[in-house]
Every structure is written in structure tokens, then in C-alpha cells.
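Sequence in, structure out. Go.
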Amino acid sequence: MLDMDLSGRVALVTGASKGIGNASVRLLADHGAQVAFCARGPEAVIKLSAYRPPSGPGAVHGYFGDMTEVDAIEEILEMVAAQIGPIDILVNNVGASPSRNFLYMSDDDWTSLHELNVMSAVRCTRACLPHMREQKWGRIIMIASGAAFSPNAALIDYAATKAAMVATAKALAGKYGADNVLTNTIIPGLIRTDMWERAAAEIAEANDTDAEAIFARNSTGVPQGRYGTAEEVAAGVVFLASGAANYINGSCLTIDGGVASYI
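Output:
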């Protein structure tokens, strides 16, 4: 029997108001973890904080905060440690994927996305590592993207930040695996989240069609014939966080329905 029980563990999921982060919070709690999460939207934080697992000791705890701000990150981490306990499982999920033209992007555009997508993960990881190393158990999970391996010019800075997350996770895995701190990356493919709902609506408007037609068209390139769900990615998060993945370190778990052509 696979050991998927996370009872007694404290998890932090960054950027969890919607999509993959939101689903990961709920599923980690369903498996017994005390799950802290942070987001900038007050209504979303309040709504997700009200989630109660159907059974078991798991619980959800919400915190407001902007992960581009150093002080906000430090404050959230301090509150989680004081109110719930030191963090055993860190899911670096927060991020954005603006579509823009390379020639018109400023240095500030590049820097601001790097701060959100990469440096938030760096700062949270750096803060959580000492406890994980001391107790000889920890899980760090980076939520990257297929764009890290197959970049698109319209999302060039996003792809660069996600590639940086993959590289960072690989290096950390080699450095801290001896402390039983396992670092892995999840590579989602086409997942039907709010980000894709927004993008499909914009593409549909530009092409005088509707969003469902865009989803149907894009799904033809997926061997399974559909977009994935946030819950299907969250299942990968729980797996990597659990005892079922005790010998998985420095890996990229691709969850894309078979889209990726790279080996």
C-alpha cells in the first residue's frame, strides 16, 4: 500500500487563491496535512480558508500577502511557524504568465516577473531549508511549466523564469538530498485554469469565435484529447510530498496528457 498519509506535516502553498495552488491546498489537507497558503485576494483567501476535509486531521489556514515583497514573505513564514508549526512541505506555486512582445518589454517587466516567479521560490525555500535539514525530512516542490522546455516568444520571460525554477530545483536536490530534503519540479501542460480561461477568451475575441472553440482546437494537440484539471496536477503534488516518493529527488514530473515531445 502506498504511504500517502501527511498527518502531522505542515505544508505551505504559495499563490493558492485559484487553479493548481487552490487544488493542491485542498488535496494536501484531504491527506492529513496542516496546510497554510497565501494569496493577494482577500475574498479568495477567506473562501479557501473555510475548506474542511471530509475526514482526517487535515486543515487549511489562509494568509494575505504579496509574494513579490520580501517583508510580506518573511511575515507570512513567521506567522505560519508561530501559529501552525515549522514548514515540512513547501509548494512554490505562485506565478504569473503575461503575454507580451519581447521588443516592447522593459527591464522592469523582466525584473518584476523574475521577482514573483523565481525569487519568491528562492526566498521561501531558503527560509524553510534549515528546519527541514535539522529534522532530516523535507519536501520542496516547484510548479514550473512546459514552457521551460518548449519556450514561446509570446511568453518569453515566463519561460525563462520557469526554466530557472527547474534548474534551481535540480541544484537543490543534489545539495540537500543527503539531508532527506527532496526537491522536485512539476511540469504542467495545458491545464484548464483561470489563466487559460482568460487567454481563450482573448484569443476567441480576436478570432471572432468563442472560448470553447479555442479549447477544442487546442485539445487536438493533446494525445488524451483534452485539457487537464488543476486537481490532476494537485495529485502529483501530494504524491511528491508523500512517503510514496521517498526516493524521487531532482526529477521533473510532467503532467500534460502526453503533449511533450522532449525526452
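Check: The chain has a mean pLDDT of 95. Residues 122 and 168 are 8 Å apart (CA to CA).
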